[in-house]
Amino acid sequence: MRVYNTMSKQKEEFKPLRDGEVRMYVCGPTVYDYTHLGHARTYIAFDVIRRYLEHKGYTVLMVMNFTDIDDKIIKRANETGEDPKKLAEKFLRLFLEDMKALKVKPADIYPRVTEHIQDIIEFVKKLEEKGYAYEGSDGVYFEVRKYQDYGKLSKINLEELRKGARVEPGEGKKNPEDFALWKKAKPGEPKWPSPWGEGRPGWHIECSTMSTKYLGEQFDIHGGGNDLIFPHHENEIAQTEACTGKEWVRYWLHTGFVMVRGEKMSKSLGNFVTIRELLQKYSPEVIRFFVLQKHYRSPLDYTEEGIQHAKNNLERLYNTLENIRIALEKAETPFKWDKEEFELYETIRDARKKFYEAMDDDFNTAEAMKPIFEVANAVNRYLERVEKPKESVLRKALEFFKMVSEVFGIFEDYFKESKETKEEELIELLVEVRSELRKQRNFELADRIRSKLRELGIQLEDTPQGTIWKRIEV
Ligand SMILES: Nc1ncnc2c1ncn2[C@@H]1O[C@H](COP(=O)(O)OP(=O)(O)OP(=O)(O)O)[C@@H](O)[C@H]1O
Ligand SMILES: [Zn+2]
């Protein structure tokens, strides 16, 4: 498997630091507004990367932070007259709801800045002890020129950076390129005690602190949107490697932007569409499908037609799945296979290979889509041509779609539904058998079925119209 590493600007063989385990950290949102499609693209992309790694047999430990205190939150709270803590809490909950709706698997750990202030202070203290940090009038700063490798991720040139930046009036830093590790509180701002007086952490330090706390001083994947490469990730690297003296992250992965008419979808430009709005019109799977039609590093243009197109394509696939379901009802036991079965089988076999090759090539979901449609088309053709379809070859197609479902997080309704339907059919069957037993006055066995079902959370009630059943808590 090969992944594109922003650090080396090329695809590299993927080899995690520990066998069989992938530890990954994805920068989470600053929670002061609704989640828009741009954010969702990034989180869906990392969700699929994580799902694929799990599918390949890795144990994945995933951490995603919440920036629940920050300039943007304070600014918004001041505008709306809300308490910044309450504001952050509200949007944090809404974000989790949105991710759940989009079937993004939850991170294993969601550390929040406000619950890790002490850890952050310790980290800054270490940087101070090692001579990388200094206290200025309004906060503690990281002295960029002390860290030799600055710029290695973004390839930014420190001299250029210096020329372009300046120390704003009121800022207590020595050099224009230095960045804040700790900000001293201004009147009315949320604050915590520290060796440098009351204040709050700078933005970058939280990710260095919380990622190393939970994933160790070295781990495999660190990700986020393209806009985080500089300065956020560059600064994270400087802080962490200055502190530990070790190479920190193996692979840096960055997602391309969702674009609207040539511009990045963003809150500040006001050109965004929220997940909530989209979910009123489209199913979560349509949104996922839309996002996955492009490779995660490419820009993704958002248009109404684009989503509509994704919707139609997904529907086509669902139709095929429905065709398989119907065909399975009349499918035959395969006493023999003919040319048609072998043709379909070979398409599925090749498609599976292509799917894995595409995903192994830097998680190329856009390429991986092609074999999905190849199988769908082949199944439809097979069902049109063959009068008595063979169960085994249809099951092969279903297995393929099930695999896609696991990795892409689509078709979940179909596979979940069919499992439940099966279960319901089995319950109906037992109810029928029990009624028959009662008619034959075999009450002992009938009661056994009833009490066993009850233990499993299915309650039977005998009514004049017959026996009905319902699910109960056990
Ligand atoms: N248009 C976009 N396309 C893809 N990813 C995006 C887009 N906008 C933001 N992201 C990513 O979403 C994640 C969360 O972003 P964050 O909460 O910092 O957003 P933000 O910068 O406040 O949002 P905005 O850019 O809308 O002001 C980051 O990884 C960021 O790179
Ligand atoms: Zn971060």
UniProtKB/TrEMBL annotation:
Transmembrane segments: none
UniProt keyword Zinc, yes or no: yes
SUPFAM superfamilies registered for this protein in UniProt: Anticodon-binding domain of a subclass of class I aminoacyl-tRNA synthetases (SSF47323), Nucleotidylyl transferase (SSF52374)
Domain called Cysteinyl-tRNA synthetase class Ia DALR: residue spans: 354-415
The EC number(s) this enzyme carries: 6.1.1.16
Ranges spanned by the short sequence motif 'KMSKS' region, renumbered to the chain: 264-268
Motif 'HIGH' region positions after renumbering to this chain: 29-39
Binding sites annotated in the UniProt record for ATP: K267
Listed GO MF terms: ATP binding; cysteine-tRNA ligase activity; zinc ion binding
Keywords on record: Aminoacyl-tRNA synthetase, ATP-binding, Cytoplasm, Ligase, Metal-binding, Nucleotide-binding, Protein biosynthesis, Zinc
GO process annotations (BP): cysteinyl-tRNA aminoacylation
Reactions catalysed according to its record: tRNA(Cys) + L-cysteine + ATP = L-cysteinyl-tRNA(Cys) + AMP + diphosphate
Family membership: Belongs to the class-I aminoacyl-tRNA synthetase family.
The name this protein goes by in its record: Cysteine--tRNA ligase
Organism: Thermococcus aggregans
Encoding gene, per UniProt annotation: cysS
